[in-house]
Structure formats: structure tokens, C-alpha cells
Amino acid sequence: MAERAENRIPVTIEEELRRSYLDYAMSVIIGRALPDVRDGLKPVHRRVLYAMWDTGNTADKPYKKSARAVGTVIGRFHPHGDQAVYDTIVRLAQDFSMRYPLVDGQGNFGSVDGDSPAAMRYTEIRLDALATELLRDIDKETVDFGPNYDGSEEEPLILPAAFPNLLVNGSSGIAVGMATNIPPHNLVEVVEAIKMLVADPHVDLADLMKAIPGPDFPTAGLIHGTAGIQQAYATGRGRVVMRGKAGIEDLPGRKDRQAIVITELPYQVNKAQLIVEIADLMRDRRLEGISGEPRDESDRDGIRVVLELKRDENPNVVLNNLYKFTKLQSTFGIINLAIVNGRPQVLTLKEMLRHFVDFRREVVVRRTQFELRKAEERAHILEGLKIAIDHLDEVVALIRASKTPPEAKEALKGRFSFSDVQAQAILDMRLQRLTGLERQKIVDEYLETLKLIERLRQILSSEALQLQIVIQELDAIRERFGDARRTEIVPKEDDISIEDLIRDEEVVITVSHTGYLKRTALSTYRSQRRGGKGRIGMTTREEDAVRHLFVASTHDYILVFTSAGKVHWLKVHAIPDVSSAGRGKPVVNLIQTGPGEKVAAMVNVREFEEGRYVVLATRLGYIKKTPLTAFANPRAAGIIALALEPGDDVLGAGLSEGQGEIFMATAAGKAIRFRETDVRPMGRSARGVRAVRMRPGDQLVEMEVLSGKPDVLSVTAKGYGKRTSLEEYRVQGRGGSGIINVRITGKNGQVVACREAGDEEQVLLITAQGKLIRMDVAGISRLGRAAQGVRLIQTDEGDEVVAAIITAERVEEGKTQPVATAPDPDEEPMGPDEETEEDDASALEDEGDVAEPEDDES
Hints:
The protein starts with a helix and ends in an 11-residue tail after the last helix.
């Protein structure tokens, strides 16, 4: 006991745990989880391939049971679970897991649906032809061997690897404290990159990426964006966005229905689980627009998952939702971690290529040295045979005179100075080699061997020749096994925005007097005949009224101009989608307005382009033109749009190209038309210049940037309206009093809207109590400027029209009755004499009209 106590070495538990854990970690890192940068294989993969090669289970031989290969591997090289080894073989044989499979399997090896492979006793395997390129020349001392787990035999520590398997097939694994995830690549592209690197060792990453634009997955699909690829190639780490490929098809026999058909999946995505995921999202109403259950029509020809869409559903919106919420869009986190000189190292693309080239050149050198030694040994024997043939009679006599073979060998060595190997070769020579033809073959072989020796010595003395051989062998493999790229790379990386998930459709934007805002699909409002009662367009309180109404796209931006002269940004899809009878949401909940500040005007914009302008008008008759780009960067609290005089308010806003014409109308029935060039561009803080002079009590009610439509549609408060040819409004100078537009009487009320219109368009009218009617412009009578108009909508007691909007969209709902264009008997327009008299009065006013001086601007 005392002796045993003396042999004890005290060790702290912390030191023992640290040392033991480090030993375990390095064992996992080096011996299990990470691939070697040279052949791209983990130990278990290397042992599987070598065991199959060593037992003759190669591509040119019949298939053998998988269980036989598994038994060989675990019995000779890898003493672990048989199922783990079989799982390794299965993955090497799966064409949806490996870009270039290394095992040729026969039987059920699983599927992209996640189905399990058949048991190893049922499947058969052999090495794939490409795998033999990993083992080629392994018997020529090209790589080092080491003892197996029990020391009974030796196994290769690395495979010769005639092609860069680490990049071509990729690798994944989790070690202790680190992980690797290298994507597969296209063989042809990788070989081209290696050739570029060999030709110019200082080639930069940009040039290498011309050869290798990115990973190439066995399941094809799309790579969405190149930024992650470039980062991974430059630093060894990056994030690649993968997408499945999907097309849009018309359903047979149903022209109004379409389907999304998924034909390719992101790498390592389980098809069956994807279908279940889509079905679950549909059930939870997180994914809408799909009719019925997803249908899997995949067969041996490829993947085909069909998603039938509902009628009139936008397929691009549904597809973007699929990318957003399902694994149809996945990410591949690249970590180029591999074993380099016995240590784990994160590698750039260029470093991975350089390590392979250096290793492959070393293999060529070692193979050449082996072949040179063998050639020199053969040349030595042939040289002895040649001497023996030249002295054939004497050699035969010496052999016949000898009593034993050792005595004959010694006699030959003494007489001709043969080496032991040469003398033995002469003694082993068959008599048929003594014929004239065979004797010449020996001479020819000797001369060829000398040439081979010279060639091998040249290779060993020239690095350029060694690299040339590396390239030649890679070219041969590329020609035999190379194929076209499968994965398409989309160079522009666009993250899915909320607009991509919203259908691009026309909607009606409605704003009440107290600031309630909503959007409603334009198709909600069916077309009616003029003179109808309309339908509810917004439920308002008794003291509230509809103030603004216009049509925009759900993908547009809304520039919201307030009564304080500020402008705010608002996206149309952010406005609540409310039914036609709903009130909506207070504007103050969507934009930051100040106390007492109300929405005064709105403009919908898709892009903030150069060369376009925002034209603003105030109720007191001022106008201002500002470049659209000045409003491209708003703040949350809004930015200044224009300066206002006390008591003035923003009336309207419009977009222009800068060279058109402006039309304005007042509540008292006057209108003015002038050239837009009369208003020069101004900054956001300017007040503007006078556009029209009005009589006391009158105010501006409409401002239009003319676009070339033939008529002007005027609408009054009591539901009357008319069309008048734009030609009847002559162009005047800015700042004049204008000419008559509508004859105002107690019957029709003051003008509330005056809009440019065409025959193919429709008009939406809305009243203060929220009633809305939609009708064809062509159904409204075309009358002179001085006419009072015809009835367009019947207003209730105390109600009046507050807004009108022109839209080009028609919604057909069966056959509609033709609309009469003649006015009703009780709605006769003013007579010609009265109109002429008013025109004369207007003309006298117009004679003194002149443009305001530019100092009117502030």
C-alpha cells in the first residue's frame, strides 16, 4: 500500500477535466466532424470509399449488398455503429444530397420527402465512377498510411483526390465549439477557377467569381442575391438566401383561374414537410389566396407541387407570401471550416483552391517519384537482359556449367558484373525471350524506359510541368463528369417588402371632415345610371362629412398635405381596408399632425422622379410649383410644403411634367385656364404666386393639371353636373378673373368639384352624409359653359355633394341599361342669349387680366 501511495501523482480536478475535455474535443474535431481541406472528406467517408475500393466494389464491377460494405468498414477501419456507417453510405448515394454522388446505389435510398431508406440488407452499392478519381494512384505511394484502430492493418490518412471534392460536394458537420457548412459547387466552374489561380497566383476574388458565381445545389432552385456569396468567399462566412423555383400556370379549361406550380426546392428542404407547412398556414389564415389543399404531383420526372389560386387572385402576391412564411425561401449559412495541417481553419475561396492545388501538386510529385523509381528498377533489369542477350552463348554455358541456381547467379555476377537483381532476372527469363522478335522487344522496351525516366526527371525538376499535369487531369475529369449549372443566381438581392405581399389594385381613399381615413376596393362601387340615389360610401356621424375622395394603387405613396402647409408620407396599404359603410381610422393615428391641423390635399405617387413637379393651390387663389424630388425624404413630424397667409388653406395638389396647363374653378362658377410655365419652380418654403382673382366671398374649389382629356366635368352641391368641352375655355394669363364655368342658381347650388374627364372614364360622387354613386362620364350631358347642368345624384334633405373623382376603371356587372344623354325637361340649360351676355361680361373682365409680378412670391 505504501509503494502504491508513493506512485500516485496528485492532479487537481480542474486540470484533469480541462485536459480530458480538450482531448475529447480534438478527437471530435480531427477524427469525426470536420473534413480535410485536401480531399474534402471526414474520416468515416474516407474509410467507406477506401474499404469499397480495396474490396473491388468499384464502378466497373457488379453491385454488392450494402451490409457487406458496412461490415467491412466497421470491422477493419471504423469500429462504430453499423447504422451510422450505413447512413453515411446512404447520403453519399443520394442525388438530392450530393451534387456529385460518390456511391452508386441500387434500391431505395430515401427521397426528398424525408422517406427512410430501405435496410442495408435490401440495398446494393458500388463506387461511382467519379469516386474512383478520389482514389486513383493511391497504390503509388501518393499519400501516407497509418495503422487502423487495432493496428492489424493500415488505412490511408488522406485520399489522393484528383478533383476538389471539398468545394464540389461541400460538407457539413458539428464539432465541439465549432461547425462547418460548405455548400456544393459546379465541377466545371471550380476547375475553371483553379486554372485561373494556376495561371495567375495573384488573381483577385472578383475574377474568381467570374468562374464560380456561387454555390450550385443538387436540388437546383434559386440563390436570391450575391452579397452573401461574396462575403463567404472573401471571409469564409456568409449567408445565402435560397428560393424554390415556382411558375404560374393557367388551369386547363378555366381561363379565370391560375395555379402556382413549384418545380424546384431549396437545398435540404423536405417537400412533404413544406406541403404540410403550407396547409397549416392556410388553416390559420396566415396564407390566403389558395383554393383547396396543396396537390403533390411529383413523379420520377421531377418535383411538381400545385397550388390552385382563388378566382382573380394575384399569383405574385401569393408567391411572395410563400417565400415569406414557408421554407420555399430558406437560408444557407456558409462556414468554410476545414482541417488544414491538423488544425481547424476558416478559409476563403482562394485559400481553399490554393490548398487543393498545393496538395494535388504534392500527389503528382510523389506519384512521379514512385514511377521514376519503378522505371529505374525496370531499366536496370532490362540493361542486364540486353547484355545477356548480346552474350547469349556464354551466359547459357555458364548456367549449364553451374550445379545449383545460387552458383549460376554468382557465376553471372562474377563474369558480367551483374547485380543480384539482374542475375536473378536472367535466371528467371523464359526461353521464348531468346527468339529474335522477343529479343528486339527487350531492346525497344529498354529505350522507351530510358525516355520515360528522362520525362519523369523533367517533371520532378519543373514546378510548371507539375502544375500542367494537375490541370490536364482536372480537364479530363471535367470533360467526363462536368455538367451544366443547376442553381440560378439572381444578382439583385431584394428582401421581400410588405408591398410584395399586398395585391397591387386600385382602391378608393376617403377622408372625412373630422379626419377619418379609409381605403375600399374600387370594385365595391358598381356602376349606376345618373340620377340614382347611390350607395353608402362611408358611415359618418351627424356632425361629420366626407371631405376628400380619390383613387390610388395599394403600392403607391400618399403625400398628405395639411392645413398647416406641411406634407407627410403615407403608404396606401397602411391605410385601413374598411368596407364601404365603415368610418375608417383617424388620420392622427397614421401621421403626426399638430393641434387643429387637418388633411387638406393628397397626391398619390409611385416613384419620386426627376423632372416632375407638385403643383399646390390655396383657397385664396395662390399657386405654387415645387420639384417632386423635394418631397422624397420626409420626417415623421412632416416637412414644410408651402407658406400660407393668415386665413388661407391648402385646396388641392397635383403632379405635372412642368410644361402643361392649369385649370382652376371657383365656388361661384368661374374658371381660369393658363399655362404651367407661367409659374416657375419654387422651394418648399415659398408661398407661391396668385393664380386667379376672385370676388369677395368666392373661393377656389378645384385645381387640375390638364392631361389632354376633351371635357371638363363640373359638379354642384345639390347633385347637378355637366360636361363642357375644354375648347370653350380659352387660355388666359395667370392672375386673371377667369370666365364663367357654371350658372349658379338656388336649384343647383355652388360648384364643389370641377374635373377633367374623358368619355371612357367614370365618376365617383360622394355626399356629406356618406352616400356614393359611380357612373359613366359618357352618360352625363355635354352642355355649354353657362348651363346649370343636369341631375347626377338625388340628395336628401340637408345633404349635399362634397367631392367627385374621375377613374378610368370600369366594373362590368352584366348588361346595364343605356344612359340617356338629353337633359330632363325640368333641367333645361340657360338660353344662348343669357350665356352670351355672361360671356361678354367675362370678356370685359378678362381684358384687364395680367399675371401677378414675381414679388408676389415669398
